[in-house]
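Table 4 source record.
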Amino acid sequence: MAAEKMALAKAINESLRTALDTDPKVLIMGEDVGKLGGVFRVTDGLQKDFGEDRVIDTPLAESGIVGTAIGLALRGYRPVVEIQFDGFVFPAYDQIVTQLAKMHARALGKIKLPVVIRIPYGGGIGAVEHHSESPEALFAHVAGLKVVSPSNASDAYWMMQQAIQSNDPVIFFEPKRRYWDKSEVNKDAIPGPLHKAVVAREGSDLTLVAYGPMVKVCLEAAAAAQEEGKSIEVLDLRSMSPIDFDSIQASVEKTRRLVVVHEAPVFLGTGAEIAARITERCFYHLEAPVLRVGGYHAPYPPARLEDEYLPGLDRVLDAVDRSLAY
């Protein structure tokens, strides 16, 4: 089958459709995922084609949604839960971190909970409060959870397949402002490992590490830096737990400089862990300290100010210049 160009949201829809079609134990649950097809229409048409028993419109009760998914997983199902917006996940936080993440260890490996929790996350869409959060570090901190985020349609399709097939719970962060970005998807391809980072652009002077919505910004920064004679490598992390430190290390040993970029606040963000680990691993290779670019340690602002809050091209290029100045 030839590759097909599709939007990231469409790729997730196609991936969910494939999973529903091939495994009768796969269920989709969430607020407005059925008749409406989701706020972003990611699940559009699935209830119509697979029925209300497979694509289930739930009450507005995130804790109940996740708790029900845990019960279904205990009975052998593979629920895919949608949290409508990132900031709505916190009523379910207790269920996720004290039950979903812990059951495998609590049962000494005898019980598995193959639950996927889809969370549209990040800013850039002009939304109101609680609709533009980036809480990935909160979940990556919890042992027992896998945490991933695609940056393009092909990864969205294949990473969703792999997440559903995983016997461990997966938090699947979807970069909502990239839902309409299109790229090639080959449904016959053989995907790489779910938690393997990918070099999105090769370079020799500095490594930019990003995931989800910031990969595109970093690729734009690398293209802009190229015009000034700077060769920037962009590494798409794809997974925030576990983190592919080996791939980051290999890149840094080549470029000797590292800047980590994410939308979430810099303070205690994913970039802090990467900076600490790479400093330990690559101390004698680094020619500059590891720098981090991200949001501010403040509540997400009103929509008219989010361009000032979110890291953009200028802030990434400023970090590149500071690193290369050492």
